[in-house]
């Protein structure tokens, strides 16, 4: 973008304004241009873009991809529709950007999972608690995933940024399982991917369906005590599977008998 010329400059001849609705008109609109560069940095761009993403996350989560409307996102973000298309290109690309941000946040959280555990059993318990806490604190992400699974993951497949973050987490789980197998605490035939899916599903399903399950099963599943009990239940289920047939676990069981 050109810097503003000094006031002493001779006035230039005004050009005719482009017709409304044309590409030239959208390009000329001050609402679609990047903000003025100040001291080598662009001001307001990141904040405005992030505000749009935050509002879009709420709208897509609450209404799904099909139900969310760009007009509503525009109104709640307090920006023009042209600016949204300027930053993201289309509704689909905006939804993909929302998914990418959500997955990035999840992967960043997963990498804070403690590696300095006292034992493989302690590591699994912390993994369960960490996974449950993430889903409990991420209701918007649950809504986004419900919508994207309804569309069979077609938008996610158009992103190159969402898959890479799993490698670190799965590597940590694999190392924990190997340590547990060496110590005799865990069986040796566990697939880290299958284990992660199971732990995540046991937390995700409970939290995404707790309102209907609460009514149908006459349980107050949203209370803190119920959630703590659920975490212990997931820990026990997971460890029961991992310890089934483990050499060290069988030896300790015989000794206790």
TrEMBL record:
Pfam families attached to this UniProt entry: TetR_C_29 (PF17938), TetR_N (PF00440)
Keyword annotations from UniProtKB, A to Z: DNA-binding
Residue span of region Disordered: 1-33
Sequence ranges of Basic and acidic residues compositional bias: 1-12
Molecular function via GO: DNA binding
DNA-binding region range list: 69-88
Composition-biased stretches (Low complexity): 14-28
Every HTH tetR-type domain range: 46-106
Protein name: Transcriptional regulator, TetR family
Species assigned in the record: Bradyrhizobium canariense
